[in-house]
Amino acid sequence: MSFYNDDKLHEECGVFGIYAPKGENIVHDIYCGLTALQHRGQESAGLSVSDTAGAKGNISTKKGMGLVSEVFGHDDFDKLNGNIGVGHVRYSTTGESVPENAQPIAMNYIKGSLALVHNGNITNASELKEAQMYRGQAHYTSTDSEVLAYEIISSRAKTDSIEEAVLDAAGKIRGGYAVIVMSPRKLTGIRDPYGIKPLILGMRNGSYILASESAAIEAVGGKIIRDIEPGEIITISRDGIKSNTKLCGMKHAHCVFEYIYFARCDSVIDKIAVYDARFNAGRALAKSSVVDADIVVGVPDSGLIAAQGYAMESGIPFALAFHKNSYIGRSFIKPTDEERKSAVHMKLSVLKNVVAGKKIVLIDDSIVRGTTMKQIIEMLREAGALEVHVRISSPPFLYPCYYGTDVPNSSQLIASEHSDEYVRQKIGADSLCYLKITDFKSMTGNLPLCSACFDNNYPV
């Protein structure tokens, strides 16, 4: 968790799975894939692997708290071996941030074993857990990921295959999710029927890969095949790929914040290049909120691409106004406001010769509570900026998210409780403008989006 992430939305989770039918060990591939997804979760990491040629079909798991590089060491590449596996990086949206809630969720049951990784939230998890507790399955502290695993195991008792069990369980759950389930000899991917969470299929030298983002597939030398369709269940085995579309529906609602902030800028999700979406958001901002300024700057890293788009459209020069120290640890979180302010200064420093005497357009992807933006504006003014005009490449956050993003309740969203003018004064900006919801079309074309945190229109 970085210096200002207590005033940012967190990156949900990232999932990765790979099956190598030729038998090569894929542990290092999972490690590399998870490293490429590290931006989606920095609290815990883990992987599970199995050898499809093994007689017993044992699943080996290693997981722990921290970054991928902190959880896994060189010894793990020697101890863990398998040609099928799943991996996970986590930011907790349900369940506490404790080692017990790290994923994968690996379980043994009467008919075999499985390991599961999950991105998103199951909105009816409490109802399912109540039924599972009655059956003696789930326990009081179960996360929604565990609830899903128990549901699959329960379904497996009355079905002939893991894919049938997954289909049966998926028909009972609601919410936004991307899930990869590994049995000892099969890899099964599930995407929620609305397509809220991304899941992408790739291939490398005969090995099949499933991942939250295309960047993770390319990080291990793979090529993108396609996005998993909303509601599709895809099963990968030695017999190849099978697709089940029984849960696919007509209504789709892809999370717009994948394009605004969550995904890596080099990823392509549902055929939309993330870089292009952010660049076009900046252009749309420039068209709707003209201001007299000398330079356009972005808050690293999330505001930089939109700032470039704003600069191109407005004709105002783009400039780098900050140096970002990338070596402050993820756990650099201080308990007092004064120490948090100090943390901002340690993470970011202003290039005074760039901003001194200038009227500035400052671009960022969002304002949640406003505390960090206020500190950044103060830093710019201390460095000699004459004016700071804030432009946000998303609409104001007004409502919570229930699908795996940690948008807090409305009372913690500054724009939900206060007017734009109040927010402007609170953060100390000379002007403040947000992207309009109608401008989403310029970002993602006709792709149907979930924008519930902005407009209260929840798809599920």
Describe the structure.
The chain is an alpha+beta fold. The chain has helices spanning 27-36, 68-71, 74-79, 125-135, 144-156, 162-170, 214-219, 257-262, 274-288, 304-314, 337-347, 352-355, 371-382, 414-417, 420-427, 440-444, 452-455; strands at 13-19, 44-50, 59-65, 84-90, 105-109, 112-122, 175-183, 186-191, 200-204, 207-211, 223-227, 233-237, 240-244, 254-255, 268-269, 272-273, 295-298, 322-324, 348-350, 359-364, 387-392, 431-434, 449-450. The strands form six sheets. The protein has a seven-stranded antiparallel beta sheet with strand order 3-2-4-1-10-9-11. Strands 5-6-7-8-12-13 form a six-stranded antiparallel beta sheet. Helix 4 crosses helix 5 (144-156), helix 5 (144-156) crosses helix 6 and helix 9 (274-288) crosses helix 10. The longest helix has 15 residues, at 274-288. It is elongated and about 70 Å long.
Principal-axes geometry comes out as elongated
Please give the largest β-sheet: 7 strands, antiparallel
CATH-assigned fold name of the largest domain: Glutamine Phosphoribosylpyrophosphate, subunit 1, domain 1
CATH homologous superfamily annotation of the largest domain = Aminohydrolase, N-terminal nucleophile (Ntn) domain
